[in-house]
Design a protein that fits this description.
The structure is a homodimer. Chain A is α/β, with parallel strands linked by helices. Helices cover 39% and strands 15% of the residues of chain A. Chains A, B: Keywords: Hydrolase, Pyridine nucleotide biosynthesis, Pyridoxal phosphate.
């Protein structure tokens, strides 16, 4: 059993704050400061260039990949970290297209995170007019999987509502139609159990600064199914994906397996902070995290609906149909969220009217939920959001 | 005048080490540790998601870009940091090709850093058989600039020999032939004065972990000439390059100017370490750095040639023709470099026979050079490199 009291004690959370935005940026692991300090002083400072070997920096992208892999049902040696999620989406879609060269359609849905669509669009524009990015409603995806489609690009958990796609069923349907799949796990990794291997997924990508708590701008990850890894031609063919980077050959030869999905020099300071976060994840079992997450979200919905009748649930009511977040619609959601934040309850707002709350059992418990809903009820019942100050929109991530 | 004694005191260099490998990975600025610690604890830890605005994280990529821009003759607002150099090469070449749609040839030279060629090759392969990466000898570049060429992709300073291309003359010749230029400044930024604006350069890219001392895996940068910025269609069209990232529109609309070259979420911890390094650079004048670098390299060549006759100069003898590094050829260069490193003189080795030394006036002075050459002379004159231990090749960056 995962000891959630123990994991909660491993995070540095500000006094008086109930943090329900770990689906946007996870909090600071207490050990990250000392760990990064040691890396700076003892590794970069003392080892200098030799840190690449002596301190194991060069192996960090795959070592971290394997630790993340355990949480998403990936085989050892099938995940590597690096770059940003947008770049990894590009790399995955380009590689997937390359495996299906006779088809020109990338299928996605309008519940996907916009950057995934932007990156796919940028890629397809560069490939020419024959290519098409086809974007349908989330409910229409299954019906749109045809033999015309080269690549299915989906985010498993909708970033606004938390609605989940059925990865196993859609992957099966895709394969039956000769379609290669790319799954974005931004709101899945560390949020829900994922079984890439069991779902027979082809490519998957994700970020590590949300549920995985790697810190602002922490590196992304990419998964390639072992059965495809040696056939994949990486579109972003950088030197650290080369078979022999330090031979400095003029010709590119892809490295073995997942190594070829590496591109440039990895961000070692970020990866060190991520390592501190993964130390906590190493203590967690995803089925425990999921069970606890469902308890927390069920409690939250029940209490909010009982005390804040103006808020309308925007997430699926069935916990099996949603990830680890709950969204409510409210016309003045922006102002209401500002009022909540001012009182220490941090969630976020997504246009046009979504108030979004993330549930992260590693550091959020029932008491937090009760306190948060108490504050929410006060704000909603007394219209405390209705001030000019809270109505002014600012740029918020 | 730049006070090099003062800047030297701002770096943490290990006792007994003479570090002549700052062209590969710069050393740790003394202030980086506390600075990163503060960012972790006070910003990430306390501000959590609100750090993106409150702590100015979202503006860091362009703020750092402007500080780097001063060192490379770039107009304010024309440089942005992010990603890795390989990714920025891809982005620049793809954008440059897009500005020259009727031509299909990217011209480069075999003195370019291999990853630049790999990335260009990967891009062109994805665009189809009509495209060609044409790689000539460095001396043949000028003659190969024809009206068939779409993009000229060159690294200004050769990573092995330090030989420099004439950026101004080649850019002029390129423009006279309708060719768009991409300059890689990996071994230029912080090494030599660069005048992108004065050279009328189109695109430039570079990294910040070498002469700029940003730390292992520090972000790259990209420059787009202001006259081109609004016409550039970024191939890697990520959400943070969008006109309104937080509107979460489904369609991509490029942001204004250099902002559109941003892609994904920026690595804030790395950027904080880079900020510490840029605090030191803010005290430096590039013409002073260049004058001092020439003094150091001239002294080094003179003393090595006087004491180590087995070493053959591989860098241009004329200081105006080379960057801030000196390379010597020696058949047993790998073993000799291992012997030097064991004695605290850190340079590096590049196959097949190049012993490479970087000169970085911010923290290397004449006394360091005299001491380094003393040790070198001892090793060479007494064949101290000739041991089985030093002859075993390991992977070294």
């Amino acid at each position: 059993m995962t000891d959630f009291a123990a994991t909660k004690a491993m995070f540095d959370l500000p006094e008086g704050v109930i943090y329900l935005d770990g689906n946007s940026l996870g909090p600071l692991p207490k050990s990250a400061g000392a760990r990064v300090q040691r890396m700076l002083t003892d590794e970069w400072g003392q080892m200098l260039i030799t840190g690449w070997n002596k301190a194991g920096w060069m192996a960090l992208p795959t070592a971290l990949g394997d630790r993340i892999g355990r949480l998403i049902g990936a085989e050892p040696g099938s995940v590597v970290t690096g770059d940003t999620l947008s770049i990894k989406v590009y790399q995955a879609v380009a590689s997937a297209l390359d495996l299906n060269p006779d088809r020109k359609v990338v299928l996605s849905d309008n519940g996907n995170f916009p950057s995934d669509l932007y990156m796919a669009d940028g890629l397809l524009r560069s490939l020419g007019d024959a290519y098409e990015l086809r974007v349908v409603d989330p409910e229409a995806v299954a019906g749109a999987i045809t033999e015309e489609v080269a690549v299915l690009l989906l985010t498993e958990v909708d970033y606004r509502s938390g609605r989940m796609h059925d990865m196993k069923a859609l992957t099966e349907l895709a394969h039956a139609n000769g379609v290669v799949t790319v799954w974005d796990l931004a709101h899945s990794a560390g949020a829900i159990p994922v079984d890439l291997s069991g779902c027979n997924a082809d490519f998957a990508v994700g970020c590590t600064y949300k549920y995985l708590n790697g810190g602002p701008g922490a590196p992304a990850f990419i998964y390639v199914a072992p059965r495809l890894a040696e056939r994949t031609r990486p579109a972003l063919s950088g030197w650290l994906g080369h078979e022999a980077p330090f031979a400095f050959d003029l010709d590119y030869r892809p490295g073995s397996g997942i190594e070829r999905m590496r591109v440039g020099t990895p961000p070692i300071i970020q990866m060190t902070a991520l390592s501190a976060a993964m130390d906590i994840w190493d203590l967690a079992v995803m089925t425990d995290v999921r069970a606890k997450s469902i308890e927390l979200t069920e409690l939250f919905i029940e209490r909010v609906e009982a005390t804040c009748p103006d808020l309308q649930l925007a997430s699926p009511r069935d916990p099996q149909q949603r990830g680890s977040q709950i969204s409510f619609r409210f016309k003045e959601g922006y102002a209401a969220m500002q009022a909540l934040i001012a009182r220490g309850v941090i969630g976020d707002f997504r246009a046009p009217d979504i108030m979004r709350f993330g549930f992260t059992p590693l550091y959020i418990d029932e008491c937090d939920i009760e306190r948060a809903v108490g504050i929410m009820a006060d704000i909603m019942q007394n219209r405390l959001w209705d001030t000019p100050e809270y109505r002014i929109r600012q740029r918020v991530t």
